[in-house]
Prior knowledge:
Elements: H1 3-33, H2 39-58, H3 63-84, E1 86-98, E2 102-113, E3 116-129, E4 132-144, H4 150-180, E5 185-186, E6 195-199, E7 207-216, E8 222-231, H5 238-245, H6 247-258, H7 260-271
Antiparallel strand pairs: 1-2, 2-3, 3-4, 5-6, 6-7, 7-8
Amino acid sequence: MDRSVCQVYEDEIQLLEAEIKLLSEKYEDIQQESTFFSDEEVQMSVKLFQGEFLGELKGHASPWDLKAELESLERDLSFLVKFTGIQITSHSKKTLEKTANRTVQKHRLSGNCQSLPFCLEFQLLEVQNNKNVSAAVTDLRILMESGPYSELSKFVSRSFSSYAEWCKHRRCTFLHFKAKYPNIVILPEGQEGDHIILRNRQLPGFELMIVWKMLISEEGTTTPVLDLLPKVPEQVGEQKKAAIDSAPTCFRSMLLLFGIETAIENLIQAFSLEK
């Protein structure tokens, strides 16, 4: 038999083996999550999966297109591994909660970062509201193996925990002022952004941006760093502009004297012309 013909058969066998492996993995996931569904829901999920998978196969001109796509994905993955130094070796997930519009899954990733082993655990919360689906990562933990990397493990856990707490505090603070002053406070990047903008209709063209960054020291300590960036219209007089230019210095002084929440509160009240 011609060698090229044999190679074609071998390639087709490899593709079939890859498809069988994919179906087996999907089947294991369905079996793992089946305890959260009724028999009717399980059968419906299997039918939907089969329809989607067959539809994907029909969408390709030939098995060779699938192989080319797979090779392209493998090249992209190889590039990311070389570029970041991070290689994922295993992944597992477990469904903790499943309702009509809410799903909670626990994920565990194991891998290496520049030859150092690590493990990443987190929970993924997905909430479906009408046609929109929102997702959020919670309970994120980075674990390091004990032994020669025990000090690094403590550093990662301490710094990450401190950073996460300050991010939560920043998010809650921004949401608090947005709810209290909805016509003044703007969240241009949403609740996870690192800045808010103050706008007042009585002061057209004039804005105040409060930037809240996080500074992580070499010891792993997280320190909040806030600053005020004013935007001044061109028609403002030089005297008023000079006074506005001093606002960032005054804001930093208020931070030292009163703390973050009180300093932002005083600034918003002054900007909203409330007395």
